[in-house]
Amino acid sequence: MAVLASPLLALQVGASDLAVYRHGASSLLHGRSLYAPSFAAGTAGHLPFTYPPFASIAALPLLPLPQGLTAELWGVATIAMLAWCVRVAFRPLIERDPGRSDLTLAVMAAAFLATRPVYDHLADGQVDILLMTLCLADTVTVRPRWPRGLLVGIAAAIKLVPGIFIPYLWITGRRRAAGVAAGTFLICTAIAALADVGDSHRYWTHLVFDTERPGRTAGYKNQSLRGILLRVLAPQGRPFLLAAAAGAIVVLGLARARRATSRGDLLAGATLVGLTGVLASPVSWIHSTVWIIPALGVLVGALANRVRVWSGVVIALALFAGLPYLPNLLHGLSRPAVVLLQRSFGLICLLLVLALPIVPHAEGKADPAAERSNPRR
C-alpha cells in the first residue's frame, strides 16, 4: 500500500491545520491564550484555534519533531487509519478473494486518497480520519480491549461533533459505554480546565456558541445542513429554521442508526451516526465528509445488489470529481447547476442518511463479525 500511496502522499501532504494544533500545544506550554486574536499571527495561514481546549493537550506529541517531518508522519498515520476504515467498511468485498485481500485493500485505500475529502484532509493536515477511526473502532469492534466508549469520549473532547455517538450508544442499549464516553469527555475537559482555566471558561461560556468563528459558514466549502440552507433561507427565518433542520436530521439519523444496530448491522449504525454528525454540525468542511467512504462500503456490500453497486459507483465518481469545486473550473454554468454542485457532498450525506440500506439478519451484514456481537455490551 505504501508503494501505491507514496506518489499521491508526496503531492497531498500539507500542514496548515496541523500547524494550528501544534501552535495550540506550544501556546499551552508557554502560557499564551489559544483564543486571543494574536494566536492567528503565529500560524502560516493566520488561522484561529477553533477547537475545545483539550485539543491543545492532545496535540502535545506533535511538538518534538520539526513541522515538515511531523506533517509527513501525520500523512503516513492518516493513510494507515484510512486503510483500517476501508478494511472494516469493505470487508465483504475485500474478502471475496482471500488470497488477494491485502492487494485489494491496498489498491482501494490508495484510490480513496484521490477522493476530494481525503485529498483536502491530507492537504490541510486535518484530524477527521482520526476521529472517524476512533468512533468506528469504539462502536463496531465486537470485543474491544478498552472500555467501550473511551475512544468516543476522547474524540468528542478533541472536536465536539463525535459527541453525537454518546446518545447513539445510549439509545442502542449500550448505556455503560455511553456513560464511559460522557465521563471520558468530562475528564478530558476537566484536565484542560486545570491546565488553562481562562481559556476553558472563555470557550465553554462564549466561543462554543460562535458558529462563524471557524470561517465563512455560508461558503460552498461548508457541506453541513446549515451550509446547504444558509444562502437559501430568508435572514429573519434563519435561526429557527436552521436549528429545526439540524434537530430533525439528528432525530432521523439516530432513529435509523438505532434500527440498523437493533438488526445487528453495527457498521451501518455507526456510519449513519457519522453522516448525521456531518450534517448537524454548524460547520462541516469538505474534508469532514470522509464519512461517505464507509457509507460506500455499507452501500455496495459484497456486490450482490446491482442497484446498490451502481449507486456506489456514482457516489464514488462524485468524490473523485470533487463536485463542489467544479463551478470554479467550469465557467458559464447555470445558477441551479452551480448551487447543486457546490452543495453536492452535503446532499450526498443527506441522501445516505435517508436511504442507506440497513441489512436485516436474514440477508447478511455489512460486517460479518457483528453477527456474534451484542450491541448492548
What does the model show?
By secondary structure, this protein is an all-alpha fold. Helix content is 62%, strand content 0%. α8 runs antiparallel to α9, α8 packs antiparallel against α15 and α16 runs antiparallel to α17. The longest helix is centred in the middle third of the chain and has 25 residues. The two termini are 34 Å apart. The C terminus is likely disordered.
Beginning-to-end CA distance, first to last residue: 34 Å
Largest sheet: none
Catalogue the unreliable spans. Answer: 361-377
Helix fraction, binned, reads 55-70%
Strand-pairing-aware structural class: mainly alpha
Order of helices and strands: HHHHHHHHHHHHHHHHHHHH
- How many helices? The count is 20
Strand content: under 5%
What's the short version?
By secondary structure, this protein is mainly α. The protein has 20 helices and no strands.
List key phrases describing it.
377 residues, mainly alpha, globular, disordered C terminus, single chain
